[in-house]
Design a protein that fits this description.
Length: 422
């Protein structure tokens, strides 16, 4: 009788030793899941050309390294493309690129069968954050009801003010809630075409603009006018729209009545290498319009040698922002679309991936890291652009170009000869 407990204990010990062997076939198969096959994605993008002194808002390679850490079986080969050459175009067409970042003009590849369409099932990982995106950005990367790209970055037109000149002239700068009346008043206070009070050898033009730029078109749309019936699918010119005529009359008045805009011939003769853009860099401009991504001279070889104040476009009849969109696209040649979507979803959560442009999601614009990177003032202005963005056409259209050419010729004549806009 005394031996039975001892025998029982021995049996239990033996059972514990043998249990792993006896139950090996019952273990969950996940413990023996096969190792994932390594995957390589070829990712192409065009980095912004920036000044040597300026620090990039983001570098793409660290993000790709973080992605590889999270998904170690996926290697991303980064392919930096020059901004103006045809490398990207050739890579998409010859199938040597799997994923790329580009503007809305990339939608032309869809018509050539060079992109993979994205359906709602594939985009399921974005379902919870779609409402976080700036309104219109997803639609801007679709055609005929089919989604082709994922929003990557947004550029918007802003007003720049030379803050150093304003401080020296004791000019108070307006806040973000300002009107065209405030715009003209600020331009007048910054206008010293015959020389600054403290330095007669240095001229300062109130509002640097030229009829050959996009500026008059921007004011047309701020006033509620139009140059065509539909910017993205124009079928009729609308230059005789009463609000368009009023806006052109007001713009011409900046030269001929308010005298806050410089004579185009003076700009051409004084700044022979770069015209109005050279005047901006050389601190001859008090106020001008430019892209958000141009701040501090990030799109040029040299950083702006002065401090600038960035403001949203002033209010008129319409309160809008004009923007250009960048997206991520998967080529038809990509043999690993599932992994490519993982990459795009990963980049979609990182404000750094937008580079010098605006992150297209409100939560990323609100991120403390983003504010630290671009500065408190820039971030505050950037957050205003979350709504009411009119996206510029994604590709050049002959119809729109012809209307634009006629508009430029007309405004140039109106300004030069002080003609009636109607």
């Amino acid at each position: 009788m005394r031996s039975r407990p001892r025998a029982t204990r021995a049996f239990c010990c033996a059972l514990l030793v043998l249990l792993p062997v006896l139950t090996a076939g019952c273990r969950p198969r996940l413990a023996y899941a096969p190792t994932r096959e390594p995957v390589t994605l070829r990712f192409a993008y065009r980095p912004r050309t920036v000044s040597r002194q300026a620090q990039r808002t983001a570098q793409m390679q660290p993000l790709l390294d973080d992605f590889h850490t999270k998904y170690p079986w996926i290697t991303v080969e980064a392919k930096e493309m020059e901004h103006w050459d045809v490398q990207l175009d050739l890579g998409v067409k010859d199938g040597t690129i799997d994923v790329f970042q580009a503007g809305g003009e990339a939608l032309a590849y869809a018509e050539q069968g060079l992109l993979k369409p994205l359906d709602e099932i594939q985009l399921g990982d974005w379902a919870a954050i779609r409402k976080d995106y700036v309104e219109g950005t997803w639609d801007g990367l679709s055609t005929q009801g089919q989604q082709w790209g994922v929003p990557a970055g947004l550029d918007v037109l802003v007003v720049y003010v030379n803050a150093d000149r304003a401080k020296a002239l004791n000019v108070s700068l307006p806040d973000s809630d300002w009107s065209l009346f405030d715009f003209v008043e600020l331009s007048a206070e910054m206008n010293y075409p015959d020389g600054l009070p403290f330095d007669k050898s240095t001229r300062l033009f109130g509002f640097c603009t030229t009829p050959e730029s996009m500026d008059p078109v921007i004011f047309v749309y701020l006033h509620g006018g139009r140059i065509v019936d539909d910017l993205n699918s124009p079928s009729e010119a609308t230059l005789d729209d009463p609000l368009t005529v009023e806006a052109v009359e007001w713009y011409a008045g900046l030269f001929n009545r308010h005298n806050v805009a410089p004579d185009p011939d003076v700009i051409k003769s004084s700044f022979r290498r770069g015209g109005i853009y050279e005047a901006q860099v050389r601190q001859a401009c008090g106020v001008w319009l430019g892209w958000y991504s141009h701040r501090r001279g990030l799109d040029a070889r040299y950083q702006w040698p002065f401090e600038c104040k960035m403001l949203p476009l002033p209010r008129d009849r319409a309160e809008i922002n004009l923007g250009e969109l960048q997206g991520y696209f998967i080529t038809a040649a990509c043999t690993h679309p599932t992994e490519a979507l993982k990459l795009l979803r990963f980049l979609s959560d990182r404000w750094e991936a937008a580079g010098d442009r605006l992150p297209p999601r409100q939560s990323l614009l609100e991120d403390d890291g983003y504010e630290q990177a671009v500065g408190k003032g820039v971030a505050a202005t950037a957050r205003i652009f979350s709504q009411k963005v009119i996206l510029m056409p994604s590709e050049s259209m002959p119809t729109l170009e012809r209307v634009g050419e006629e508009l430029i010729k007309a405004i140039t004549r109106i300004v030069a000869k002080d003609l009636d806009a109607a």
